[in-house]
Amino acid sequence: GGSGAGKGSEVRPGSAGPLPRAAAPLPGPAWQPLPQELLSTSFRCETCGEEEAKYRCPRCMKYSCSLLCVKKHKLALSCNGVRDKTAFVSVTEFTDLNLLSDCRFLEDVVIAADAAARDLSVHRPTTNKFINYLRNRARRHNINLKTLPIGFTKRRENSTIFNKKEQKFYWHLKLVFPHCHAEYTLKRVPEDKTLTDILKPYIDPVESDPVVCQRLKIYTMCPQSDVQILMKIENREQNSTRYNELDASRSLLENLKNKVIIEYPTLFVVLKKLKNDMVVLGQGKHIFISCYAILRYFS
């Protein structure tokens, strides 16, 4: 029912109506049509800057001309292309469509909560058994692995496993690049992989992906000796946040020993030359990090 605007069609800037869905299929959520007042205006693709735009991302409102540019934009900006249903809308801009969107969002929340309550796998005893097993294996390596209650985002995201046959961990890992406001999630990272090898696809000038390399240009342009890998020390008072500096030449497992991990490791890749707010334990020096990163990751 309804007009279906923004759901099954995309609108070309400067055209009078929607393009057929089969004309340029895109994976994931459908992209938004342009507002009526912009239909007569021509827009350039904000990724390649050459072709006329055909799509607009419902999350970051960037214009794209093709499936290739859509994928590049998502990777470069770490954008999932999904409209933020909880984004703030001022009273003066609030319309019937916003009200309808809020009602549907609340309905989805009720459905998701009901489904979770009915999901026996969430409440089965083996879940706790598996978690306890991971904790015990981590303890043997002098790692204090702590888990959050079911329902927390980090608990749901965590894909860490222990391979009994190989007798080693495969960690869920998050890399945060504060100076570029970028983060990347890695799944099943073997414990014996060095931090240098883990970072190569991101900041190595030769081996990194071209799109990622451009996104993290400030890192790839700096010598490797200027790159510092930090991990937040858990269980400290909020006003006394400190970080451990990790050894990039050593394995992930060796770096995690004698540390507290909540669900999975989060590594902050910073540059020594940009100093300000992050205090490294035992060094008495600070590493710059933006207020955006502080509010997002440490609040």
From TrEMBL:
HIT-type domain sequence ranges: 45-79
CC annotations in GO: nucleus; pre-snoRNP complex
Q: Name one GO molecular function term.
A: zinc ion binding
Decide whether keyword Zinc is in the record.
Answer: yes
InterPro entries this protein is in?
A: BCD1 (IPR051639), BCD1_alpha/beta (IPR057721), Znf_HIT (IPR007529)
Highest taxon above the source species: Eukaryota
Composition-biased stretches, type Low complexity, lie in 12-25
The record's listing under SUPFAM superfamilies reads: HIT/MYND zinc finger-like
Please provide the record's keywords in A-Z order. Isopeptide bond, Metal-binding, Phosphoprotein, Ribosome biogenesis, Ubl conjugation, Zinc, Zinc-finger
For region Disordered, the annotated ranges are 1-27
Q: Which GO terms describe its biological process?
A: box C/D snoRNP assembly; maturation of LSU-rRNA from tricistronic rRNA transcript (SSU-rRNA, 5.8S rRNA, LSU-rRNA); snoRNA localization
Ubl conjugation: present as a keyword of the record? yes
Task of the protein = Required for box C/D snoRNAs accumulation involved in snoRNA processing, snoRNA transport to the nucleolus and ribosome biogenesis.
List the PANTHER family hit by this protein, alphabetically.
BOX C_D SNORNA PROTEIN 1, BOX C_D SNORNA PROTEIN 1-RELATED
Family from the record: Belongs to the BCD1 family.
Provide the assembly information: Interacts with FBL, SNU13, NOP58, NUFIP1, RUVBL1, RUVBL2 and TAF9. Interacts (via HIT-type zinc finger) with the RUVBL1/RUVBL2 complex in the presence of ADP.
State the protein's name: Box C/D snoRNA protein 1
